[in-house]
Amino acid sequence: MLAVVLLFFLFYYILVSFLIQGWIKAGNPSSGSNRKSVISVIVPVRNEEANITTLLDDLFKQDYPMNQLEILVVDDYSEDETTQRVNHWKERHKDFPIRLLRLTTTSGKKQAITLGVEEAKGEIIITTDADCRVGPSWLSSVAACFEEGVQFVAGPVNLGSDGTLIGDMQQLEFASLVGSGAALLAQGIPVMCNGANLAYRKNAFREVGGFEGNEGIPSGDDEFMMRKIHRSFPGSLRFNLRKGSVVTSSPASSWKQFMNQRIRWAGKWNVQGIGFSGLLAVFLFLFHAIVIGLIPLSFAGLIAWPVAIVLLLGKVLLEGIFLVRVQKFFSNSFSLPSFFMLQVVYPLYVIFFGLTANFLQAEWKGRRV
User: 208 and 79 in one domain?
Assistant: First the structure.
């Protein structure tokens, strides 16, 4: 038993060290391209009347040339005043290149993005969500990543915090996911990314058949596309950690929303297949099960208490080094209470969603998915 525990912790230490190296590598981008490509920003929306005009205001303030830009808001059967808000905004900004599209025969985020790509005039497609905020240099930072041969660019998403322990924990956990995705992609292993800050060439989207093969999965408009492009264009993916690259989103406002969000995210893991991503998911599930089991194993005398304590301290130290770096990039304060609380909660969280997510239904924008 001790040998198995030691082996899992050793592999985990190697993994986190690999992430630290990858994060450092991702933070040293090339000089970038000065060529101004035509960009089409696609914003799929459903019931976003409270958020859409704020995002449009941010996009209006971009420092990217207006004649090289278009915004496509794609409505997915909104039941509120989302489309009215968009039309009203358009009336106040008549010279701004924005179009409102509506799904008519299908529904879902992937279908909305697909329609946007079909209608897009730009060479580069960028996607984000209506409930996000972007800085004025966001589009310029993305465009700079599309050097010759680059087909796909993922970007960082920061989660705001309301200053509460729960809010700080969500922010820190989300930062760990974003940081891990950036670090692994910098090491040439595409595992995680976020559709709120994503870009790819229109031709690459067409070449891989868009979302063909995973249309029925409610989430994964980001990661499945990343892997499809990676298979067709190996070595053509980048992570954007340039100045101005951050997109800011909001944390879940309730436990129900948090649960629904995580169930949707976890629901795509059962279709990963046998590859690095699938093996990584299994390893992390088993590792966190072992972390939970350390205490009963120590009480049972199967593992000495000093050994268990040293193993856990090593885990805490390496994770702390990694997360401090990620939070510094986001200009977030590193909350020690949230960090140590996550040390207790996160293994339970991984086991719970790993066991139940594929048996539970989630609700998204008034739909059961």
Answer: yes
